[in-house]
Amino acid sequence: MPLSEREKMLSNQPYYPADPELVQARREVRVLLGRFNTSSPLDIDMRHTLLKELLGAVGEEVWIEPPFYCDYGTNIYLGSRVYFNFNCVILDCNRVEIGSNCKFGPGVHLYTAYHPLEPTERASGVEGAASIRIGENVWIGGGAIVGPGVEIGADTVIGAGSVVTRDLPARVVAVGNPCRVIREL
After folding, report:
1. Domain 5-184 falls in which CATH fold?
2. I need a surface site. Which of 47, 62, 144, 153 has the fewest CB within 10 A?
């Protein structure tokens, strides 16, 4: 039996994001995100309920400042005490795992999705997605971008505005575009 486009997407195989099942899933998430992003800051219980409905897993004491955006939600797995500041984006076309005690500055973007380099293949509408894994106690500064397939080790700090295109080890400070380790912790 051939794989569905969703199964291809989650297994890092070329897939068509215009597949009706995927389009419908993204529409449903947009409705939940609309409710979350326009919720009152005083309605904490509703925000937590929406996050549990939206995301694949939500640990204890998770806080996401609206507005927040994602593609599917169900592919995002958060440990406990994770904090996202305003305007964060997760393109979760593949699994995104974030360990406990992680902090994300405003405007941090995590992208699992990528497009083919070959123009003809890219024009066909096919794309790919590779998972992102972030260890515990990571701090990612505002405006940083983490690309597809990246793994960030525990206790690492990533400077604001950095573009992370390769794996980073645990317990380092890394900055820049492309992001590179500048010292160990």
Report:
1. UDP N-Acetylglucosamine Acyltransferase; domain 1 (2.160.10)
2. 153
